Amino acid sequence: MNDANTLLEQLLSTPATTLPAFAGDGRLYALHDAGGSAQVWEWPAEGGPPRPRTAHRDACAFVAGLPDGGAIFGRDAAGDERVQLYHLPPEGEARALTANPEAIHGWGAISPDGGRIAFTSNARHPAHADAWVLELATGEARCVADVEGPHELLAWRPDGQAVILGTAPRTFESNLYLVPLDGSPRTELTPHAGDARHMNPRWKKDNSGFWLLSDQGRDFLGVAFLRPGEAPRWLFTPAADVEKLEVSPDQSILAVVVNEGGYSRLRFLDAATGAERSAPAHPQGVITKLSWAPEGGSVVFDLAGFSFPSGLHRVRPGAAEAEPLHEATGLPPLRRWETVSFPSHDGRDLPAFLAFPEGERPASGWPMLVWVHGGPAMQALPNWRPDLQTFLSMGIAVLVPNVRGSTGYGVAYAALDDREKRLDSVADLASAHRWLSARPEVDAARIGIMGQSYGGWMVLAATTEYPELWACGVDFYGIARWKTFFERTGPWRIGHRAAEYGDPVEDAELLERLSPLNHADRIRCPMLVAQGLTDPRVPPQESEQIVEVLRRRDVPVEYLTFPDEGHGFTKRENRRRVYAAVTAFLGRHLLAR
């Protein structure tokens, strides 16, 4: 265990760099967590070492470069998601642009002239994200559109006289609207075609239309060009989701990222025809964001993998491979993962990632941990996870499945767990257990399960629906009862979540059936529960309820709370505490015989 703790500390102490964003003078901004939480760092345009530009205890949420070399960034308080916006000049200290700690300010976009920013705010009503524009020179802000429900401001029209408002009433439906700043009525830019997504708009400078990502009439997101009010003209439609799209400064090249079984693949396309120009080689992993340099000659992107934390890479269109710009060094050799599939209860093959420890396996087989992603409309990705690598070093194998309902495998696959079919995805976990148990490398009596957020609900559902299967469970801020979840989750989330899970009134009976708290008397295995106390998404009561029931029934349960964390553990010291606790917990319940 001491070796595992040493490795965990080394991996947690290795900094990550994410979300790169160029400013107009060529300097590069990104978030870097060397100090313990993600802060804004700057890479000078002329080269040289990066320097920190913020030093807060709470993590920054994003950074966006300004034409004059400055930046905009956002930060909340203790993970409460009430993000405030700040202006960081090219030199000197940041100044606050918003100062309402009760409101969420959603980042939008910078105007073409760099003098204004667009953002959303729910200051009028917590459930509604209105559209706002702010003058950077004066700090004057005004609401340009009252809206109903959550929205995003995604782009400016090239003339700077209108913004694009994105709405997403459901996970797989999103539409774009043009909001003129002169008070004229907003107009729909995307033809409404039922459940289809229209995302990531990038205006053409001649104002004739915009590039975007859409799955209208398709199972996967592709690249299209759309003239307002018309149907999209498809440019690039692989049999996989295109997840990122950025246009070069001269608008001749599109840089896109394709999700190939969870792994990101960067490609350059001709902006007019969609023809592929190049697909430079880069390490296998996950790209979160990419940014074109102002001169248009290169792209910088972040990249993380199972065996390395996120770092920055640079590539020029036409180059054979990307070059590392800033990445972690000194990491020990870590286990490689393989992509596998396993049969479900209804005969489907379900994708997953699998890794076994080094060395000779025990006579009875390796103990196993099944790690379940959140969402549910998300995908388990081959991402940096110091905790999972530590478990492998202890002698615990790990399976990371993408059960039905996961994204990345088409719209139809993602719909397989909707509403009344919700427990089919839980049955997929039982199928994973059955598949693992049949393998000689695995000890069927020592299979645990772990997940966070909706994945925490999956852990609770799995241990109530199939209590005989699991040796232990780890639940990070999971939903215990849907009724109390809807009563206390952030008001801005209720409509969107109801569209996914079921209406809290009309579908009350179904949601009660799907609430693990109502079946907690079935749980047999030891549990570890962890919760951030400022979590606005899954409030602490969800964890408190399940812990109370388990304690009352004398089921072994450990409960960790974090007063300065919300929906996730963002500070290194808190990750250290929670991962060390999980390491010890799994050592007792999966390794001890």
From TrEMBL:
Stored InterPro entries: 6-blade_b-propeller_TolB-like, AB_hydrolase_fold, Pept_S9_AS, Peptidase_S9_cat, Peptidase_S9A, WD40
Q: Which residues cross the membrane?
A: none
Signal sequence span per UniProt? none
Task: List this protein's GO terms for biological process.
Answer: proteolysis
Note the superkingdom of the native organism: Bacteria
Gene Ontology terms, MF aspect: serine-type endopeptidase activity
| Keyword terms of this UniProt record | Acetylation, Hydrolase, Protease, Serine protease
Q: Which residues form the Peptidase S9 prolyl oligopeptidase catalytic domain?
A: 387-590
* Keyword NAD tagged: no
**PANTHER family from the entry?**
DIPEPTIDYL PEPTIDASE FAMILY MEMBER 6, SERINE PEPTIDASE S9 FAMILY MEMBER
**What is the recorded function of this protein according to its Swiss-Prot or TrEMBL entry?**
This enzyme catalyzes the hydrolysis of the N-terminal peptide bond of an N-acetylated peptide to generate an N-acetylated amino acid and a peptide with a free N-terminus. It preferentially cleaves off Ac-Ala, Ac-Met and Ac-Ser. Also, involved in the degradation of oxidized and glycated proteins.
The protein's name? Acyl-peptide hydrolase
In its UniProt entry, the species of origin is given as Teichococcus oryzae
